[in-house]
Amino acid sequence: MEIQKGDEKASYGDEVLEKLSQKLTEEFGKGFSKRNLERMRKFYINETINSRWSVRELQRQRDSLIV
To answer: Pairing with 3, which of 12, 15, 17, 31 sits 20 to 30 Å away (CA)?
Structure first.
């Protein structure tokens, strides 16, 4: 949120999500539309806030996903 200066999304976010969507779809197939990525991000942000996860917990969550 620091880069976003309190805004819900950064000004360059649309382009980043579009490119990420294309890359993920090429690699993994359907389910990674720009809209779905927006929903995933919103869910993750809400979950971290509601669960009051610490930075350490977020790092643990991220590291457990790396294969």
So the answer is: 31
Q: Is 33 left (phi over 0), alpha (psi -120 to 50) or beta?
A: beta
* Domain range list for the chain: 13-65
Band of the pLDDT at 2, cuts 50, 70, 90?
low
In angstroms, the CA 57 to CA 60 distance is 5
Run of H or E residues at 31: none
> Is the predicted pLDDT of residue 39 greater than 50, yes or no?
yes
Residue 65 · residue 52 · CB < 8 Å: no
